[in-house]
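=== RUN LOG ===
request id: a7f3
mode: sequence -> structure
chains: 1
length: 252
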Amino acid sequence: MKMNLPRSSLINSVYEYVQENIGNFHRKRIDRLSTLKLDSILKRKNPYLFKAKNVLTAEQIIKGIVDAHLSSNEETIFGDWLEGLAIFINQKVFGGWKSGITGIDLEFNRDSIRYIVSIKSGPNWGNSSQIEKMKDNFRTAKKVLRTGNSKLQIIAVNGCCYGKEKNPDKGDYFKYCGQEFWYFISGDETIYTEIIEPLGHRAKERNEEFLKNYAKILNKFTAEFVQRFCDSTGEIKWDELVRFNSGSPKLN
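=== RESULT ===
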């Protein structure tokens, strides 16, 4: 697979892109943290599980639900960020572009073939219905692209930024993960390891800012939880918590 520019130029461009744009990921982490509401995250978690695990303090409950929420959000935020990096790299090497077709993230031409790519973070990203939806998007995209060129050869790819896939040929599409995905979009066998280093650019100071905001949220939510769901002795009122989480206005 021949690259259209010197490898050194590609690596330098990747370093510059990461250093200039990784701040967006950190800013979004903090922004999401500032928009958290205690009621919203309490309603998403299973109060019975906390009781079954013998969770005894408000701090344990709050830290558990906040951490779970943030972990899920960070996966989404960083997945979107990696998608942007992948498109940037492909554009540099093969002239690819962000697709305007629903469900397709990247399009590019190589060896007289149009590749349409749906980018995901990791290999285990969806259930059977979500995978079927992706396949529908691929079929629709092929119809759209062939409207103007019925002879256009199109290959659909599900690209995953990390992980491995033993059987990439899925019949309707190919699934490339980790090194194979980054090689597919760049023509460079080792770029998947090159991108890890610049991700740490100013990470320490940015994470310190995040942790300050995180601590404030934990303190604020813990105080609010104690006021609403603990009795005068400090014991959790589990019945009140369950009513808030699961009670029906029609039956109360």
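=== NOTES ===
Residues 58-94 form the longest helix (37 residues).
The chain has a mean pLDDT of 91.
=== END ===
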